[in-house]
Design brief:
There is one protein chain. The chain is α+β, with helices and mostly antiparallel strands. It has one domain: 2-Layer Sandwich (Alpha-Beta Plaits), CATH 3.30.70.20. It is about 20% helix and about 25% strand. The protein is built from 2 helices and 5 strands. Strands 4-1-5 form a 3-stranded antiparallel beta sheet. Strands 2-3 form a two-stranded antiparallel ribbon. The longest helix has 10 residues. It is globular, with a radius of gyration of 11 Å. It starts with a strand and ends with a strand. The relative contact order is 0.34. The structure holds iron/sulfur cluster. The site of iron/sulfur cluster has 13 residues, from α1.
């Protein structure tokens, strides 16, 4: 299973990723940036999301306008 890496410092808070995976991402109340639910608070967060296949994960990452989401 591929890992999702979220670079929170790049995020502009457009919420596209939250719309695509609302049980994985949320918008953090403190700074209005995307946040991976249930992962430690960090500038760079990592997590896995079993409900999307690798192609869907790649498509989601491509929709982030600032390339803050990396799939590895
Ligand atoms: S799609 Fe990118 S810029 Fe938009 S909220 Fe998600 S991480 Fe932030």
């Amino acid at each position: 299973m591929k890992k999702i890496i979220l670079h929170r410092d790049k995020c502009i808070g457009c919420s596209i990723c939250v719309d695509l995976a609302p049980d994985f991402f949320t918008m953090h109340v403190s700074d209005g940036k995307a946040f991976i639910i249930n992962e430690p608070d960090a500038t760079i967060q990592k997590g896995t999301y079993p409900f999307m296949d690798d192609m869907a994960l790649a498509e989601m990452a491509q929709k982030c306008p600032v390339n803050a989401i990396v799939i590895k």
